Amino acid sequence: MTITIEKSELSGCINAEPSKSMAHRLLIVAALSDGASKVANIAPSEDILATMDCLRALGADIDLHEDGSSPAGYSASVKGFDPACALPAELRCRESGSTLRFLMPLAALSGARMRFTGSERLMCRPLGVYEEIFASCGISYEKGRDYVETSGRLGPGEYNIDAGISSQFISGLLFALPLAERGSRLILKPPVRSSAYIDMTIEALSAFGVEAERTDNDEILIPGDQSYKAADVTVEGDWSNAACFLAMGVSVNGLDDNSLQPDKICKEHFEMLRRGCAEIDISGCPDLGPVLMAYAAMNHGCVLRGTGRLKLKESDRGSAMCAELAKFSVETELSEDSIKVGCGLKEPAAVLDGHNDHRIVMSLAMLASLTGGRIAGAEAVNKSYPAFFEMFARAGGIYRTETKSLMEGSEV
Which of 128, 208, 287, 364 falls 20 to 30 Å from 319 in CA-CA distance? Predict the structure, then answer.
């Protein structure tokens, strides 16, 4: 889908999209609970639908239904399953790295053969942490172009984890190991990346009656033989998806200033970039990389540090944004773990490329609202924020698709 965006001034107020990161976590722990739970305020993005499909394949009963009392319009009723009794299954992860990494340890609790499928790009993302852990447990591990297949049982123990690649491996073990017969200990090898996401997982566990203790010396102690208890919970607003609108001066209702989400720091970073050419470390909030690059180009430029992991996302985000900013006549310098961004936007003559990446598309839409422009592959927003262009229009954005007429400030 190609979107044409005309110069338009965004303003006003919209409601926050539910946090995709927390929705994954709450759906998983609800599916592990004995009894029926309700997870309110769900947005049916591609990633969340992938997690629900995979949990169903393992044995959970999940009903996603319209809910007028939920800000996003949907809630999920969840009846839990016993992962120790899960039968061999195929788990279709689509393009969701969270789904794949969160569920691999859970699927290994039964010892059954499990096949995870997904896009080639997904299977190119790092999984070596699990490959090493599974080898130490005698779990077979086979990886192909578009699948990973495992067979064998994950047990309790002491696990040394390279925490510099992704916190998702740690979260995956945190979901599974409380159900083991004995306690476990996770030893996190520094640097610990995206540390706040680990705390978000522990918070989700606690909401369903499960304990895990994070110590001061980069260890996590997980008591064994625990059980998840059914609960009714509500997904909080998403700071990551709100960032593009906040950058354009749009107010976003439903964001918790006390949230554990690391991307709430976006407001502080935007203020730094408004004041001048700032140097910002994004190693703890890599999802903000594209929007910060776009915002810097709108203002005084910047130097981003800790950008190495951007190449491991849905696209090589650093390289992708540099390529697209060049179409706006913005100079950039890309290094192994840093990116320098210039400023001075001009209307792009070439069609912008969304790179099959939701965060790239949203950042380009923000820029195109200032200059005008066309974005190919705009449907990538469905991965995390299906209502993005609806909210863009409500905030005053002017756009059209190849098959729809121009609309301003209305739903499309």
Answer: 128
Contact between residue 318 and residue 334 where contact means Cβ atoms under 8 Å apart: yes
**Residue 24 above 80 pLDDT?**
yes
For residue 403, pLDDT over 60 is answered with no
**Rounded to the nearest 5°, which phi and psi values hold at 227?**
-140, 140
Mean pLDDT of 360-364: 98
Q: How far is CA 91 from the centre of its chain?
A: 19
Q: How many CB atoms lie within 10 A of CB 300?
A: 17
Q: Sign (positive/negative) of CA torsion 87, 90, 92, 97?
A: positive
Backbone φ and ψ for 343, nearest 5 degrees, come out as -150, 180
The model's pTM is 0.92
* 132 phi and psi angles, rounded to 5 deg: -70, -45
Share of the chain above pLDDT 90, in %: 93
Average pLDDT, the chain: 94
Q: What is the pLDDT of residue 189?
A: 94
